[in-house]
Amino acid sequence: MKRRKYEKKPLVPLLNFGCQDFMPKMATCTLPLRNICELEPISDVVCEDGYKSLINNEAFNEFLKRYIDHFEEASKIEQPIVSLEILESWRREKNGRFVKNDEERRLWHDIGDKKARQYITKALKQISKSNSKVSDNTDRDVIEGTTSCTSEDTAATETSSQSSNLKGSSLMPVAPLASAEAEDQNRQEFRCIEINPKSKDRLYGRAQEQSNLNVLYEQSVTRMDGLSNFLVLSGEPGIGKTALAQSLQPTVVENNGFFVQAKFEQLTVDDSLAAYISVFGDFCQSILDMNDKRIQRMHVEKITNLMEYLLEDSIAVSVVPALGEVLKLASNSAKYQHSELSSIHESISGDEKDEKQKQQVPVHVSYSSARLKFCFSKILKSTVCKEYPLVVLLDDVQYASSPVAFRDFLTDLVDHREGLFFIATYRTGLGTSSLSFDQLTSALSQDAVNLHHWEVNGLTPQAVHELMADKISLELPKLDNFSSDLFYLTGGNALFLLELLRSFQDDGILKYDSGSGQWICDNHLLSHHPSMQINSLGEFYQTKIAELPQPAQETLKIASILGPSFSKKIVDKVSKHSQAADSLVMATKVGLVIKKSDGILSFRHDSIHTATYSLIPDNEKSIVALALGRRLLRKAGEKGINKYTADIISLFYRGRDELTGTSSSSDIASVATLCLQASKAAATSIGFHSSIFFVDFGIELLEHAGKWKDNYDLCLSLHNNAVDIHYGVGQFDKVEELVGEVLENAMCFEDTVQARMMKVYTLGTRKQLVEALEYGLETLTLLGDPIPAFPTNVQIGLAVARTKRRLKKKSDAALLRIPTLADKKKIEVMMALQILFLNAYFARPSLAVLICCRIIDITLKHGACAVSSVGFAGYSVVVARGGINIEEGYKFGKNALAFSQKFGGDVWECRVAAAVYGCINLWKEPLQPCLDELKKAYLLGLGSGDIEYAVLNASLYIWNIFEYMSVDQLELAIRNLFERMAVLNQERSLLSLKPAWQMCQNFLGRNHNPKYLLGEALTREDLADSVYIDNHYELRSSIGADEMVMAYHFSDYAMAEARLPCAVLLYNNVSTISAANARMYHALILLATTKKSNWRRIRKVKWLLKRFRKWSKSCPENFLGRQFLVEAELAGVQNKVEKACAKFYLAIIQFRDSRCLLYEALANERAGKFCASIGDKGKASKFLNEALKVYKYWGAVAKCEHLKSEMQTSIMCLTCNT
Question: Is 325 exposed, middle or buried (0-12, 13-18, 19+ CB in 10 A)?
């Protein structure tokens, strides 16, 4: 046959799958093609790396570029013809070969024309990255031997027309007419239009719906009330729902917005996190694909800064690789820093990240998923607005795993933000759905979204006719009849229509005549074709499946039970016959199955999966699933059981009706045991909902196997595991329900200890401290080791004295040589004591002292364990309380660290760090190393799921860094921490941090009266809650002490002095740096209103100064500046002007060196006011203006305004020149 050049002849249209007949004959190479000893360096192309070798070969790469324009202009079906022409030219012009090495014979062989052509095609596609992508769902490249996915989306987005259908249609690409005249003529009659591969995708018969969709989108993203529009598109499979939704994408992208998609799949156990990952992955990819680099840089900078604050990039990038690419785009420009503050501003705000440290943090089931969701939600919230809107397409929501999971997913996304528009597609006509339409609408709260529902119907006869005219070039009368028949057969379902056309072509009814450039249709064969009797898309697919050999049909049924996507290995293991692999290859060739990734296949379209699954009778589905689960369990064996556990249980879950109805109790118990193992394994991953699913399924199974009566030990283990997991995700009501069941059915008290401890944890997390203490003390009594609920001072004194006496006899080395505690009952007592300790520390400090002494007593008498570290840490805090006996406390803090490293590991280091680095070491060591350790402990607590201690470490970090970090960054860090805990419903655990948060807001000017701690952060409801916390001295005294600080800074010395008792209570009972700060303010307040003759106040100040001098000797970096400031004020009261000025200078220098912003500003302010009081206006002005600069940099807007006002009025009317 004479070679046909594609430029001069009509292109073979898209539906021509038989174009092999039109392939030109190849020009042969004159050189030998086999047993080649020496290669021609110019003309021979070595193909050891496949098509990549062609790209890397410089000579052939240049040769390819000559044809790149022709390749881009060709349609997908014509691209191999271009490749064939390139191959012929290379053979003819260069006498070239494409060779591979035979390693055994050490000779070269030509790979042949077919393989070479395939490599050339792939190389051209790789080079032509700018080429428009043709949808894999509508085209199949038979020449290449591949089958692409045909989906509802792409079946509906191939062509378009200007006609509109008010209900619904499918979509196809249409070529634009050459001129306006041709366009007018096309409106009057249906003409045969050749397919142009460069044509843009538009919709058939959707002009009105597209217009309405755009209006709804504009209304949603510009609403000011925070209520986003939520559009539900319902219709049968293949009708064009997704395509209609995706037609909005160009508009969104043009408006600098984001169009993201999450697809729900049938028979999926857990889709909660997958939906977040899909949405966020598309979001990041949209940023990477942005053409406007200015906007791209802005988004990248926002995300980078936020990731630094959240400290979540390690785990988030591992789940969403596109986020890593976004972070790589971040600029490395240095940020403006004052006094090298970045070295201190780490941790909760996270200006720097230690990758090695974060890699050591274990991932815990409870918090890993929650922190990912929180991270994704924060980034979306900070980026999305009406200027940069976000459109979320939720595809096939009828397959969402549960209404609760879907509602939670939607709630996290909505979060009262503007610039959002939601579109959901819902398939009708399915027998069963995970989420019914009523459940979907009820899950959409009217307070969060405005619900809209559109029903999408099929194409109109006119739209079908246009589609047919674009796809095949038949004579007009034949086309009219053909399109009319197909319309009534398919009901206007575009996917059904395309599948029929392909079927007709495969069966020879439709043939392309290259001579005339027309399609030829055999009407006789068409009228008798079996497909003309098919009434639905599902029936069509079932007919195609029925044409396969019986083994292939059975293999596809097995795959459908596994889900829309499945593993080839699993199918091979559970299949009865040995032809499973060949059957899957056959299904791939006929276009029913496609390759998704290595070892994973999927049905080409969800309708194919649904049709295949429906071939299994409903009454046999459960039976078959159970049989497959048992077969996979048997084939996996002991070595492979861990690899396939999740798949096995998923099969058992689908066969649960048969399992519980026909199996013995022992078989059911075996599956429940497997559920327990799977739940524990899932607890190490980020799919925490899977862990909950497994354990809850195991408990559900035991309902049919005697539960507590016949499987007591297994049931107890399942319930204890369930308690731990539900606690981790913040489902506290479920925890109490499970604990109640354990207490009701346990045979002995020992079996209830673990559940009781988790209940104490739950009560403590909810800040129900009184109930937690009562229940914990009751548990201790039942364990045979009672402790008084309200110990007297005598009891506490005796316990402390006894502990001191015993510890004096033990050196540090001797303590570490204490044998390991082996008594199981004593271990339970120790665990109960450490759980009680934190609750007692906040509610009853005297009880906390007694608990520490009891832990040390048991350690010395019976042996050491991990809990011993908590006892020594708590004891060190007790000893050094208020900054007294810091040497002794420092020693026991080291013992606590040694015990935690010896017995406990990371989890216990987190618990000990709060006491050692937050309360003890800062009296002996510079603040920065202590902050680093608190940061590490905070991350360890998050990773291990120990939320209470993570919160404690974070709180201590914030209290200790308050004066050093800029107030706006500190406020943001606290806000992020509260939002993070809100993910787990644990906001109340941060109640004691709210006064510090409100102080930040007051300094920022967000409260009309900054002296009082009442506003957005600390509300009246919070104060009411604190009333019910038994003796919560820490919260109540903290509020009073913080109001004292605010009153002093805003020159209300009378109010500050009235709050002094709260400060005294605080610094006598805590060991943090707040104890030193409270003493400093105590002294400053006494000196602010005193006179030289008031010797009682001066004596009190001198007594306080003795403490500061002692601390300054131990750690001058932390305390010397505070000492100098108090000495300067005292010298000023005593009229020692030179000494006062010198001390003010020393205080300012010391605070500046230690990077303490607030106190540097305060020292300048006090020095300025002192100079003004002695009449030195020049120095006063300099000091006060410097104070204003530092206050401004620190972020204290309200304080700057107050100081300016004082400078203009009270302080001799000095003028502010800043």
Answer: middle
Q: Phi first, then psi: what are they for 1145, rounded to 5°? A: -60, -45
CB atoms within 10 A of CB 808: 8
Nearest to 537 by CA among 491, 483, 601, 589: 491
Angle, alpha carbons 183-184-187 (nearest 5°):
90
CA angle 479, 481, 482 (to 5 degrees): 60
Q: How much of the chain is in helix, strand and coil states, percent to nearest 5?
A: 65, 5, 30
DSSP 8-state code for residue 703: T
Which residues 6+ apart lie within 8 Å of 359 measured at CB? 314
Query: Which pTM was predicted?
Result: 0.67
Least confident piece of the model among 117-131, 345-359, 549-563: 345-359
CA angle, 370 then 376 then 380, to 5°: 145
Give the residue carrying structure tokens 């080409």: 604
Cα distance between residue 853 and residue 244, in whole Å: 70
Residue reference for tokens 């007591």: 712
> 915: number of CA atoms within 13 Å, CB side?
33
Structure tokens, 28: 């042969």
Q: Which residue has the tokens 């990041």?
A: 284
Assign 427 a pLDDT band (cuts: 50, 70, 90). confident
> Within 10 Å of residue 517's Cβ, how many Cβ atoms?
15
Query: In this structure, are residues 396 and 265 in contact, taking their beta carbons and an 8 Å threshold?
Result: yes
Q: What is the percentage of the chain residues whose pLDDT exceeds 90?
A: 19
Higher-pLDDT residue of 149 and 38 is 38
Q: What is the mean pLDDT of the chain?
A: 78
Say if residue 337 is exposed, middle or buried (CB neighbours under 10 Å; 0-12, 13-18, 19+): exposed
pLDDT for position 460: 86
Helix (H, G, I), strand (E, B) or coil at 423: strand
CA distance 601 to 594: 6
Secondary structure of 502-561 as H, E, C letters: HHHHHCCCEEEECCCCEEEECHHHHHCCHHHHCCCHHHHHHHHHHCCCHHHHHHHHHHHH
Q: CA angle, corner 973, sides to 971 and 975, nearest 5?
A: 70
